[in-house]
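Archive entry. Fields below.
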Amino acid sequence: MTKRLFALLSVLMLAGLLLAACGPKVQPFACTDSIGCVDIAPTDPIHIAYLLVISGPNETLGVDSRNGIEIAVDDSGGKILGHDVKLDGEDGGCSAEGGQAAGTKLAADSTIVAVIGTSCSSEARAAEPMLSAAGFAVVSPSNTAPDLTEAGNSNNYPGYLRTAHNDLVQGAAAAEFAWEFLKVTKAATIHDGSLYADKLQQVFAEEFKKMGGTITVQTAVDPNQTDMSSVLADIATGQPELIYFPIFLPAGGLIIRQAKTTPGLENTFLMGADGLFSPDLVASAGDDVVGFMQTSPDFTAFGSDYNDKFVPAYKAKFGTEPISIFHAHSYDAFMIIKAAIEKVAVVDADGTLHIGRQALRDALFATKDFKGLTGNLTCTPTGDCADPHIAAYKYNVAQYPPEKIWP
Amino acid sequence: MLRTWRQRITFTDIMIWAIGLAIVGVVVVGTVKTLQSGKYEPSVWLDLTIKGLAVGGVYALIAMGYTLVYGILKMINFAHSEVFMSGPFTAVFLANALAQSGFLNKQPLLSMLLITLLSMTISAVVAMLLERIAYRPLRYAPRLVPLITAIGASFFLQYTFRGLYGSGFKGYPTVNSLQGSWIVFGVQVYKVQAVVIIGAILMMVILYGIVQWTKIGKAMRAVSEDKEVAELMGIDVDRVIVFTFALGGAAAGAAGILYILLYPVVWFFMGFIPSIKAFAAAVLGGIGNVAGAFVGAMLLGLLESMGPNLFLDGLGILNPSQLKDAIAFVVLVLILIFRPSGILGERITETKA
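PREDICTED_STRUCTURE:
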């Protein structure tokens, strides 16, 4: 019985081989891309993944970005080039460890065409080497640390772009705001050892000194620290008029609260940056948040589509005002990826879609005058695509969002 | 005589003493240099001392849970950090409801009492459930088994609360009447810190009173001396153990409310660091020893608060505040080198090997 079956199979296989050799000659698609292609069968979806912080103290940052991507997918009708978009991803936890774990998982999935992420620069530093080596195009909606797109820096990986501003811009804007608007001359900075906070306070300090200001101390806390008394006592000895702490939650909220109970710092200006732009800041700092200022992207500089179409769509879909700041940037991240895929994808005779990975990266870097929600996006050769406008916001009441006060 | 003394000393002893002396050296040199530099006014040290005592008070109350349970069961209840977290993480809803209705600022004393009671109740109930479900079935198992169970229970509780209340964090409302400061003998004392210190001491006195002067307290001490003999004397051991867990849980719940007065943010992972510190404090003071837990916790709170500025600032170490936890644990190592059973000594029962 088994012998017969074997004979039959052999005959069938030979016949198959013969037929294939004699059949009509279809030019098979040959992938010439230097780092490979993604092949998508006619009925398969195009897989775009995200790597954002979607749980824990900073979850609003990543969930907000993911909401932006989902609206972008909706606005595209859920399709790119007739293929459904498959959107899923991993939680990076806004930490290097989380980025490492999430990056390892994503890098193992070869169906992924592009990754939108990460939320935090520390995640990028850990995840980006793997995502880059896997050949993905990566567009971050909210990494702002300068060295991620600094030519020649070891943290600048091939295929990495961002639609968020570079902190060289934000740090300078913060220094200008402090010097010209608040008219302070002595400032102290605090970072938490994360790539983002460390670089941003460094840029701020350098720019502030260039303008003629004095930096009394540049110090650091641990991101999980709850008792800030020793660091605040240290800062108070320098009697600064402003403390700039571009860090995250919960440390940021605790500093705001404890500064109010540190002799000498009761009336010092407290200022943070976009990492603290979240309703959870008000939840953690309570009434003490009144008077707190922060730099962040300027919503009023966004195109009219933002207020007329995007925000209503966000409210309709998620039932709330945007909960953080990088939703429009992630919307744009998806849109430039979509445009680049449409530019480079090749459809062969049987309808299979082929996307060259290097070609996709090249197309992304060639993005020029792209009309996005956040402005006109033009990518530099190192991956900065943003059209950055930074504003300063202030909490006049203990309620999110804060009001824009500058420029 | 000299010979035998020299024979007894091993290489390990010498290394341990060298480490101990090195730590002492760093502490002394750092302190002298910092004080010489005159960077900090005396008022700064006073302020840090008060803050350290406040944190120490919170640690002391949490440490009670560890030390009472250790005294009776000879096990470290590693899930105590979640007992501590459960109270304030639940009471935050009541606190915010009270704040929204305006009741909190109209009747601050009554509101805080209600919030504290809720927190204590929840923590005590969680501790009792923990004992009933996780530990009692393993009472006579080898000592490592309940220890591993405790770690498992800790994760279970953490993620249960994460599921219940979410992974984000919640803030406690500010109590207006606790804002600002008093001047006591020319020293500026923030009201919050004063309330925390007084509250912690009050709770400690109550706990000490229960253990020393009540019938159930006597039973607790009897069970911790010798479980079997206590049972023969007609003491219901199970009931005493449940009471011990409840007492430790209630102390943790009260500690939780004092903790949120200082650091008003709660989330599911908040218990880990303070509880590890409290455990260290219990060991520092001598585990199983109620007064020792108090002394250890106050010392740890002070070291943590003053340590970075006092020991490390003078040595020119950058960002000393990040090394706060390291200082606390290095001092723990130091004390255990010179006094392995803790400052006031471990309570050793006769039956314990």
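CURATOR_NOTE: Residues 40 and 353 of chain A are 5 Å apart (CA to CA).
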